[in-house]
Amino acid sequence: MKKYELMIIFDSQNDSAVETTEPFEVLLKSHDIKVESKEDIGNRKLAYEINKKSEGHYWNYFLEADEQSMQPFNNELLIQDYLMRHLVTIRS
Predict the structure, then answer these.
(1) 86 and 9 in contact (C-beta within 8 Å)?
(2) What's the pTM value of the predicted model, to 2 decimals?
(3) Which percentage of the chain shows pLDDT scores above 90?
(4) What fold does the segment set 2-90 form as a domain?
(5) Domain extents for the chain?
């Protein structure tokens, strides 16, 4: 199993950060990805507008998963409309 770091940006205008992450965490569990820790970074100004929005709510996740489960998970993140952006990196 490899260790990954995932940075995600949600729309900052949603009501609650916890409510926003619930469908995302269900997606993690459905792909058998273990969350080692997560950090709510909070609202930040974006470097450029995304969908006419200038702020986003940032979360940083530290994950552990098989390589075979990360590719389908990453592909599924691309079609989620509640995410503004995401980036998955391998931790060493």
Answers:
(1) yes
(2) 0.86
(3) 73
(4) Alpha-Beta Plaits (3.30.70)
(5) 2-90
